[in-house]
C-alpha cells in the first residue's frame, strides 16, 4: 500500500531517502469497508488520507435532511474535511466510503511535523493545494453560471475515471442538480454521443 503512495509522490516531485522514512514512520495504513464513515458531523477531522484504493464522498446534510455532496475522492486523491483539519473545529460534514477502500492516513499532529521536517514533501503539498483551490473555484463558477448540460459534460470530461463508479443521485448532488434533471441531461447527451452515458449499473442507484 505504501509503495503506491511513494510512486504517486515521485511523480509529483523529488523526495530524499530521509523524507521517505519520515513519511513511512508518520503514516498509518487503513482499510475501510464500504458504507463506513471516516467522519461524522460534530467530530473534528483530525486526519488527512491518501486514497490507495476505493472511493469516498464528503457531504453535508441540510436542515431538511437533504445530502449535498461537496467532494469525491478515488485512487491518488486526498480526503479530509480540510477546513476542520486546519482549524481544529468540529466538522459540519460526513466522509463515507463508497467502496471497500484503502488509505494512507496521517494525524494532524504528525502531518504538521512532516511539513516542517520534509521541505520537498511540503513543496509537493503546496503545489497540490494550489491546484485543488483553483479546481474548487472553477467548479463553483461552473455550477453557478453554466447550464445543466454544460455542468454534466464538464464533469464527464474532467473526471472520466469517476463518473462510472458513483451513483447518479450523488453526481446530481455534486453538480447542484436534481436527479430528474441529470437523467434528462444524460439522455440528451447520449443522443449526441453514446459514450457520454456509459455509466455502470451501480451508477443508477
Automatic annotation (TrEMBL):
PROSITE patterns named among the record's database cross-references: CNMP_BINDING_3
InterPro entries (alphabetical): cNMP-bd_dom, cNMP-bd_dom_sf, RmlC-like_jellyroll
Segments forming a coiled coil: none
Residue ranges annotated for the Cyclic nucleotide-binding domain, each copy included: 15-115
Name of this chain's protein: Crp/Fnr family transcriptional regulator
Family matches, as Pfam families: cNMP_binding
Amino acid at each position: 500500500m505504501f509503495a503506491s503512495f511513494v510512486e504517486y509522490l515521485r511523480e509529483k516531485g523529488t523526495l530524499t531517502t530521509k523524507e521517505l522514512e519520515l513519511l513511512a514512520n508518520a503514516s498509518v495504513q487503513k482499510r475501510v469497508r464500504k458504507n463506513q464513515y471516516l467522519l461524522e458531523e460534530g467530530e473534528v477531522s483530525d486526519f488527512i488520507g491518501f486514497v490507495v484504493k476505493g472511493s469516498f464522498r464528503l457531504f453535508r446534510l441540510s436542515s431538511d435532511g437533504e445530502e449535498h455532496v461537496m467532494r469525491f475522492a478515488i485512487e491518488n486523491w486526498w480526503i479530509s474535511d480540510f477546513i476542520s483539519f486546519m482549524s481544529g473545529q468540529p466538522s459540519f460534514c460526513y466522509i463515507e466510503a463508497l467502496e471497500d477502500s484503502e488509505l494512507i492516513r496521517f494525524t494532524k499532529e504528525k502531518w504538521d511535523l512532516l511539513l516542517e521536517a520534509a521541505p520537498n514533501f511540503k513543496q509537493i503539498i503546496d503545489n497540490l493545494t494550489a491546484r485543488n483551490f483553483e479546481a474548487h473555484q472553477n467548479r463553483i463558477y461552473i455550477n453557478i453560471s453554466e447550464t445543466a448540460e454544460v455542468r454534466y459534460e464538464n464533469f464527464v470530461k474532467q473526471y472520466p475515471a469517476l463518473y462510472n463508479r458513483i451513483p447518479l443521485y450523488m453526481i446530481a448532488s455534486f453538480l447542484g442538480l436534481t436527479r430528474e434533471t441529470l437523467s434528462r441531461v444524460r439522455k440528451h447527451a447520449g443522443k449526441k454521443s453514446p459514450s457520454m452515458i456509459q455509466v455502470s449499473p451501480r451508477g443508477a442507484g
